[in-house]
Every structure is written in C-alpha cells, then in structure tokens.
Amino acid sequence: MSDELVRYEIDNFVATVTLDRPPVNAFNLALQNRIIEVFDRLSDDPSVRAIVFTGAGKAFCAGADIKERAGRVFAHGERWTHNRSVRECFYAIMECKKPVVAAINGPALGGGLALIASCDLLVASTQALVGLPEINVGLLGGGRHAMRLFGHSLTRRMMLTGYRVNGAELYRLGVVEACVEPEQLMPTALDFAKELASKSPTAIRLAKAALNAIEEMSIRDGYRFEQNMTAQLQGHPDSREAMRAFAERRAPQFRDEDPA
C-alpha cells in the first residue's frame, strides 16, 4: 500500500513500514498522526505478524522539522495538542500488538531516536547515526527514550552535548542486533521479522505486552506478572500445539491471532 508520509506493504505476514517525507523524514503533525494511523491499523490486521520499520532516502528520521517549528506561533492549546501527538506516535509503536524491527538506515535523531527506542528489535546500517541534537536548536526531549538504549553517562553526554553514536558503536554497545552495509540492512531486518512471524501470534502478543508492563516493575512484581501471562497463554490452543510440535519434532501450525 502506498501513501504519502508513511507507506507500507505486507508480504507473507510481514509488514514493511517506510517513513517517506523528504528530504530527511522530519516530524510534523501530519507525519506523527500518520504513524499512529498506520501502526494502529497493523496492530489489528490478522495478515500481519511482524513489522519492519525504516526510512526512505538517506535518513531514518531527523527529528523535529526545525524549519517549520522556527516560524510557527502556537495558538492557545496547540502546543499541548502537538506534544500529545508526539507522545502518541511513540506509544502506537510500543503498544502495537505486533513486534517491530527497526531498520536504521541513516540518522535517527531526537524524535527519530524515540521512534527506534519504541521498537522491539534494532538493526543498523553502517550509515546509522543516533543522537539527541535538541540542545543545539533550543529544544529538549528524548532523554527518557535514550535511557532505554544507553547507560547513564552516555545518555547524558548525548542530551547535554548533542553527541551522536554511529552504527558500529551501537553494535559494540549491544544496542542493535547487527550493523551491516546499507544493501544488507533490509534483508537482515526482514530475516528477524520472518523469525518473529513464525512464532505463535498469541504468544508474541502476550510476550510483548508483558515486556512493556514489567519494564518499570520490581523483579518480584514483574515475574508475578509474567507468570500470570503464562497461565493465560497455557489456556490457548497455540500453547498445546507448540508442545505437541516439539514432542513430534515438526514445525508448529499456529492459528491466526485472536481479533481482540
């Protein structure tokens, strides 16, 4: 499917979502709202079991459209509407019922960093750059998302100086699963997505929901939450099918995800 700003296509249970707002896929209200629309739609689409998320051109997402922001005067209430839209576009990815693989093809800066931090698995091109340049353009933001990816000192270096981390360093730090040449980025990301799509859709949905929920919990509360999710999964036919397939040394045949 093609649409301006964000386009997507579906093939063999994997959706590929591409930001397409030249020249650098910078954020504006229309792009944010389109991201929400696409990920909410794919979240409920039974023909999708995993998603690859990337950018068209040389950038993944360069963050806020500074040229547009510089000349904008917010009317009463518009600033909060804008902020809410920004937050919700990240939540649409985090809360999507399908796992999302970020294929970081180039700079992912500011809001772009928050986009990739909202994904489940990350793969980088050698052309990738991740950073928080807001300090240099009179803005703030993205620090909490950066904390999901980086340690204490590096997060502060990025937010306080605008320092950018390249693809090779992202891999050395364990932030991404692979750092590959540009022509290998999408095949690598699709391989991860195909593996995710081969799992039980119900198990994946519950596992992602559990990971999102337990991130801020204590070990005791988090493990209890996971145990409750396990009990819920055990009542589903996919759980019994996975066990039978393991015992019979064959590939499992999972049913489509529940529409709820």
Q: Can you lay out the helices and strands and say which pair or pack?
A:
Layout: E1 5-11, E2 14-20, H1 29-43, E3 50-55, H2 66-70, H3 78-94, E4 100-104, E5 107-109, H4 111-117, E6 121-125, E7 129-131, H5 143-147, H6 152-161, E8 164-166, H7 167-172, E9 179-180, H8 182-197, H9 201-214, H10 219-234, H11 237-248
Parallel strand pairs: 2-3, 3-4, 4-6, 5-7, 6-9
Antiparallel strand pairs: 1-2, 7-8
Plain-language structure description:
This protein is α/β, with parallel strands linked by helices. It is 47% helix and 16% strand. It folds into two domains: 5-197, 2-enoyl-CoA Hydratase, Chain A, domain 1; 201-248, Lyase 2-enoyl-coa Hydratase, Chain  A, domain 2, CATH 1.10.12. The strands form two sheets. A six-stranded mixed beta sheet has the order 1-2-3-4-6-9, sandwiched between helices. A hairpin with a 2-residue loop joins strand 1 and strand 2. Helix 1 (29-43) runs parallel beside helix 3. The two termini are 24 Å apart.
Distance between the termini: 24 Å
Number of strands: 9
- CATH superfamily annotation of the largest domain: 2-enoyl-CoA Hydratase, Chain A, domain 1
Strand content: 15-25%
CATH architecture of the largest domain: Alpha-Beta Complex
Which range best describes the helical content: under 10%, 10-25%, 25-40%, 40-55%, 55-70% or over 70%?
40-55%
Offer a few descriptive terms.
alpha/beta, 2 domains, 16% strand, Lyase 2-enoyl-coa Hydratase, Chain  A, domain 2
